[in-house]
Amino acid sequence: MTKSEPGAAPHQIVIVTGPSGAGRSTAINALEDSGFEAIDNLPLSLIPRLLDGPPLARSVALGVDVRNRDFTTRAFMKLLETLPAQTDVEVSLLYLNTREDVLIRRYSETRRPHPMAPNESLQEGIRRERELLGAIQSRSDVVVDTSDLSPHELREEVTKLFAAKGEGGLSVLINSFSYKRGVPHGVDLAFDCRFLRNPHWDPDLRGLTGLEQLVANYVMADERFDPFFEKLTDLADFLLPAFHDEGKSYLTIGLGCTGGKHRSVAVAEMMGKALANKGWRVSIRHRELERRAKLGAGVI
């Protein structure tokens, strides 16, 4: 039986499953980036052998789906019953679920055959797989519906759910966005920047973004900016250590404006630098700028 070392950070075993096309590979990669040892498509019969050797050096993420060589619903359910008895680390089952219409669209885009119906209709393969996995979904510890999540949003969700406490401390993601397209999924704290002066109405700045210093200077020239930014960073100085002490490993701060192009981007950049200078591990994402780059410069 595998035992954790005394005083070591608590390890986990996270089993990731769900219908094909729901995002299992994305979830496995997110866990691997969070410090997990990731093993995908290991035969069910070999999984218990992972615990026969020395204690786990780190948390483990296991990807399991219907393509596993010896996969059956009964064998998988038996594994879930017996695995916790072999170890004192936490064992969790993450089930990724997706609507049928989304699965059809994703497979249509890739033009790959469904593993449950290589020579039949896509709908038939999806139906068979859902029947096979139905009992497993009901046994899951965590179910995440990925139908409306981008790969980036799924990574954020998985990281927040399972990133090991005490391993690497608190990571902060600052996400700028447009309120016209809604608050991003998974935001923990959201702040509205729409009261600040808008560079959109300056013809010389309209075509630029908050990444340019000219736009940042325009936003900072608003007399309300300094007290707003001071209060924002003061609140972060108070909350981030508290979230860290509580064991939270991932925090997402959203900053929104009308178009997600100028004010929110500029404030996100400034806040990211301020927090990084104080020693926090910070990443910055600009949702609308990413969308604009993906769809073409005419989209915002």
Which helices and strands occur, and which strands form pairs?
Blueprint: E1 12-17, H1 24-33, E2 37-40, E3 60-63, H2 73-82, E4 90-97, H3 100-110, H4 122-139, E5 142-145, H5 151-162, E6 171-178, E7 189-192, H6 213-220, H7 225-246, E8 250-257, H8 263-277, E9 281-286, H9 287-295
Parallel strand pairs: 1-3, 1-4, 2-3, 4-5, 6-8, 6-9, 7-8
Helix pairs in contact: 1-5, 7-8
What does this structure look like?
- This protein is α/β, with parallel strands linked by helices and 300 residues long.
- It has two domains: 151 residues, P-loop containing nucleotide triphosphate hydrolases (Rossmann fold, 3-Layer(aba) Sandwich), CATH 3.40.50.300; 125 residues, no CATH class.
- It is 38% helix and 17% strand.
- The chain has nine helices and nine strands.
- Helix 1 crosses helix 5.
- The chain starts with 11 loop residues before the first strand and ends in a 5-residue tail after the last helix.
Describe the structure using short key phrases:
single chain, 300 residues, alpha/beta, Rossmann fold, 2 domains, 5-stranded parallel β-sheet, 9 helices, 9 strands, disordered N terminus
Instruction: Note the run of SSEs as H and E.
Output: EHEEHEHHEHEEHHEHEH
Question: Do you know the CATH topology of the largest domain?
Answer: Rossmann fold
Q: Radius of gyration from the CA trace?
A: 23 Å
Strand order of the largest sheet: 2-3-1-4-5
Count of spatially separate domains: 2
The average pLDDT score comes to 85
Count all strands and give the number.
Answer: 9
CATH architecture of the largest domain: 3-Layer(aba) Sandwich
Unreliable residue runs: 1-9
CATH class of the largest domain: Alpha Beta
Structural class: alpha/beta
- Share in helix: 25-40%
N→C terminal distance: 55 Å
Structural shape: flat
The tally of helices reads 9
Largest sheet: 5 strands, parallel
